[in-house]
Amino acid sequence: MKPHTIVTMLFIIAVATLVLAAPAIASKNQGRDQMVLDGGRTGPVPFKHHLHQDVVQDCQACHKDFKQEKGALDAAKAAGTLKKKQVMNKTCIACHRAKKKAGQTYGPVSCRACHKKE
Could you write out the DSSP letters of every residue in the chain? Predict the structure, then answer.
């Protein structure tokens, strides 16, 4: 077989795999759709969990530092395994800024844009 034929076949297989896996990816959403994270003195952070799941599609991108269970973020901070602003600065804002730089749709890139004082 010619090399371009092999590449074409691999492309078709990859597309077919994505099409067949789409329902599984779509039903992957777990946890609550909307959450409110403890934002400390600067106010709580409303968080659209399912939106982030749909955009990021890799739970470990966010959950590499804390478990996938209710209260895990606060528990990791309390246990000292997670620094106070580690997730927000190293994960959230970093991702939003990278998407902005790439010219993609992005989320807030400043602290005050997410933290809502009551």
Answer: --HHHHHHHHHHHHHHHHHHHHHHHHTT--S-SEEEE--GGG--EEEEHHHHHHHH--HHHHHTSS-SSTTHHHHHHHHTSS-TTHHIIIIIHHHHHHHHHTTS-----SHHHH----
